[in-house]
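Hi there,

I know you've been waiting on this one. I reran it after we fixed the sequence typo, so this is the corrected version. Both the input and the resulting structure follow.
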Amino acid sequence: KMNKPKLLLVADTYYPKVDGTLKFIEEFMKRAQDSFEISLLVPDYGTHKGKKVTYIDMSKFWKISGYANLKLSPGNLKKIKTAIKEADLVFIQGPAMISYLSIYYARKYNKKIFFYTHTLTWELFEKFFPGLFKKLFSLIIKKISIALYNRCDEILVPYHELQEQLLDQGLKTEITTARLGVDIDLFNPTTDKRASKEKIHLNPEKKVIGYVGRISREKNTDLLLEAFQKIEEQDNVILLMVGDGPEKQTKELKQLKNCKVTGFVNNVQDYLKAMDVFVMPSLTETTSLATLEAMSTGISVIATRVGFIKSYIIKNHNGLFFPRNSSSVLSVKITKLLKDREMRERLGQNARKTVAYGFSWERSINRIKMILLKRYYH
């Protein structure tokens, strides 16, 4: 029996912080364990689960948007080197320090390196730097990022536009598009909206406007709150925020009587099924798994035209758009959907079809497996 290639998965996130990257890792491990011997290199957030996991100590002080950064300690560097030396392939997710150090050492020890990037790192970090330094830091991060990407064997991106943006910035490495997916069996439309609301302890008489994701500045959740407060019949609506974030952002929401903030949950699908309208107000998105999962659940979606969202949502067919700085327009569109059941259902059904045909995990991960194995055997 041939030995399976040893694959090290490196990520800048881990439990309990469940986000798009972690979801991808879960699905990848489930579907790729027959082809690879998989181990993980991840931040230590105190939730230790799974075997073959190397945990990296995180700094208590240095945080960006609620995410801790790794400690630059000899112990950490040793852990990273050891994990990489034992692997044949290094498959890296997410744009943090842990990823960049992994590229550096993987190149040094001559491993095959794949980097799955969902975003332009420098644009992401630009939002957190103070005004004066914004441009400078952005430029430095861009230079470092491109230099490191060019040391990889292959870069994977979830959608085509990102590929073009990276090529414009001087990327020389081969880039391949590999979509993210959705578990279309888990995220399926409910047959009984009232029961779905009762299941998560919401009043079934009320209409539910929902959001899933981090509650933070870059996600523009403040604007959703403003729009919500402009809806006329306040007593008949509930704002359901599924996620968590910095206290400054969540405090105001938690004080509202008709708003529910859940924190991180493991059963997002139950919350989606209770929603009548889903809103993604984000200023910066990549694929936005949360939006795809809402669409897969058959909900009508209103989103900003950002990232890949602007390609897979087709206006008035499977969703609606609103300008990202206008809470009034958003409020009007939400109200319109809440009043027009026929339109809600039509958009929801088309949304479900879009995801079922184009974004199943099975298809996505098979493609990624082929890309990795092809490099390994050639």
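Quick highlight: The mean pLDDT is 91.

Best,
R. S.
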